Amino acid sequence: SMKPPPAISTTLALTNGQEGTRWTHVVQQLGKCLKVYKEASFLASTLYKSAFDADPASLLNISVLQQCCDCMKSVISTIISTIQTGQSNLGERQFMTTGKDDSSSSPSSSVSTALGVIRDISTAMDKVLPENSSSASISYKLMDILSWSVASFVRASPSFPRFFFQALQSTVVKLAVSPQQGLSQEPIPLRADTHLSLKVEGVVQRGERPALFRQVRSVVISVSTSLVSRSSSTNLSSKTNETTSIQLSQTVQPHNDYFSTSFVLPFSVLGIHTTKVEAGVVDENGVVWNTGPRSTVTVRSYDESIQRQQQQIRSRAQQASSSQQMHHAQEIHT
Asked: Which of 60, 224, 230, 331 has the maximum number of C-beta atoms within 10 A of its C-beta?
């Protein structure tokens, strides 16, 4: 069948209130792209927060890579919002004009180019989307901006940060957590009416050029517990208002690069619990860096009275089984 020209098709869709329907497939594809850029932005942010030993230029490079992802997120989110509602997403558009620009380091030419692209995209978006715009007919212009943005970032893609292949500063935190599970990795048994005293010790190891870019002022130890599997013998009436997870943290200052702290952890819910211990460092400016390392301990919380009852039941069952076997053997003998 003959289809109307694009201009007539757009007019008909607007008249019938079906402008958003015409772009359903496009919105679905853009949604997938938006998810990818969100994940990339999150990974860049995670990398930045863990790169304690990175040189300032590398940190700026990573920051700009994240800003590029956030910029593309803004463009895609604005397109989706405009197609679906006829209104641009104001929050996303505000990011386009308030994005951070780390001026503490002299950016390389590729980084400067990428920052320039972000500013150009912001300007283009502002021209296409005035504050009072409510017409979905600008979707074609937005798609042109999206295509142009991708091509611009490809041409201006920053190089790999130096930190990726050369670290000029080296800082390593090592942890020792006690109690620890045995060689069989069986969970640590703990009575539910008691608490686990978890001791965390560690050392900060520094390389040949310590504090070249930043130095360790203190260490943050974070502990989180979560219920993995509940015991089948748990009383159902006790499940209300019970605590199945906790999160604690302590900040300690190393002495001669050694530090130590402890946590008192309750495991009142019967079952298997996972305890995660993670270290981070705080620099001289108070910035927290998620350097790691991480350690995991598994705990089995039990009720002594229930366990005693279960042992008695098993013992009776074994005795009954032995008695039956002896009786059966006597019958055969006779």
From this structure: 60
